[in-house]
Amino acid sequence: MVDLSQLTDDEVFRAFASYATIILSKMMLMSAATAFYRMTRKVFANPEDCATFGKGENAKKFLRTDDRVERVRRAHLNDLENIVPFLGIGLLYSLSGPDLSTAVLHFRIFVGARIYHTIAYLTPLPQPNRALGFFVGYGVTLSMAYRLLKSRLYL
Amino acid sequence: MVDLSQLTDDEVFRAFASYATIILSKMMLMSAATAFYRMTRKVFANPEDCATFGKGENAKKFLRTDDRVERVRRAHLNDLENIVPFLGIGLLYSLSGPDLSTAVLHFRIFVGARIYHTIAYLTPLPQPNRALGFFVGYGVTLSMAYRLLKSRLYL
Amino acid sequence: MVDLSQLTDDEVFRAFASYATIILSKMMLMSAATAFYRMTRKVFANPEDCATFGKGENAKKFLRTDDRVERVRRAHLNDLENIVPFLGIGLLYSLSGPDLSTAVLHFRIFVGARIYHTIAYLTPLPQPNRALGFFVGYGVTLSMAYRLLKSRLYL
């Protein structure tokens, strides 16, 4: 066993680890929300899922789509599309030696913007609330990517 | 060039690397499975994909959806939604100095649960087989997230 | 604060950071492309998004699907399905001490193949252009996974 404290004592890395864990946990909640709406509204995508609610033809009526379920699924996919770049670029950015307060500001704004995006999507709030949440998070990731590519390009 | 052996000699990190590679390779198989079903069942999403099977109106009949293909695609998306949090949280957890046997137990259960989930989805097995695979994997990731946030929160 | 230069001076890791940032930025462009097509073609998935174009029944006609928008979304999802394994496996591969020129060759081919895949998908070019882009990127990721599992398996 080796001492990894060099990496894990780094404050920027610790901050990244905390915010990444929070935003990934929030994303996982979307799975639970989808499951919740599917069960309470009896809306399923697979025949085997509605076996408890009826047999044969009777079960088929639960194989349908529902606005509420589709909305949660779109919010989940949007999370995935935006959190994956944040994780990749954010990890590399954390290791590139940024200023602590600048880095923490990036992470905080991103996490706040994505939580706001989810609230705006699921309520739903009128536009441009959701667009605002989306573009703020998008801008934060691009800002980290810009710093990475400017300072450390190796091709 | 520098010696990275400090990181790569760490046993928890090596275990994480092995299990992450295995589960990502499994996820990549889903792309191959989708391509296989699309070719053998002649079910396509893009007009250019069915050009070899016919021209013009004749080709359009292959632009359709198919239960089997949609099932593989749902299993693939579910993998993506669950493996992304595992990768992010698992990497940070591996670097936070957990006990080796506890960490390996987490990784093993997660990989086993996701493989079981795929088998249950594609066979398909009756519920609650698939739900079990899903929730066991979900719980493992939450358990690592909990440990990370409890011991190393930095906000 | 600690000196992370050991990790960030490693040339393979720096190369991975550069290529990963480039391909993630390219993936983020797909979100912008979807938003662009949704706005210019007035094709929306949520009622609140078309409020500026009309009220009530008048707005509902914009809640539809469009070939062009669906094409961008499929390309985006395919990116996600392939870039996630590249990020996970590529990061672990970079830390496993590969030869610099071999590693850079892997990263370059992957990034080139995925950019070609996107061009072939959105133009669209006739098959097998898109299939070629897909399978080359797929092969690069599998090649890195194979090297990782061969040399460093820990179960």
UniProtKB/TrEMBL annotation, chains A, B, C:
Its main location: endoplasmic reticulum. Its EC number is 2.5.1.18. It catalyses: RX + glutathione = an S-substituted glutathione + a halide anion + H(+). The keyword Ligase does not apply. The keyword Acetylation applies. One of its GO terms (molecular function) is glutathione peroxidase activity. Keywords: Acetylation, Endoplasmic reticulum, Membrane, Mitochondrion, Mitochondrion outer membrane, Transferase, Transmembrane, Transmembrane helix. It is found in: Endoplasmic reticulum membrane; Mitochondrion outer membrane. It is a multi-pass membrane protein. The chain crosses the membrane at residues 12-37, 83-111, 131-149. GO terms for cellular component: endoplasmic reticulum membrane; mitochondrial outer membrane. One of its GO terms (biological process) is glutathione transport. It is an enzyme of class 2 (transferase). Conjugation of reduced glutathione to a wide number of exogenous and endogenous hydrophobic electrophiles. Homotrimer; The trimer binds only one molecule of glutathione. Belongs to the MAPEG family. This is Microsomal glutathione S-transferase 1.
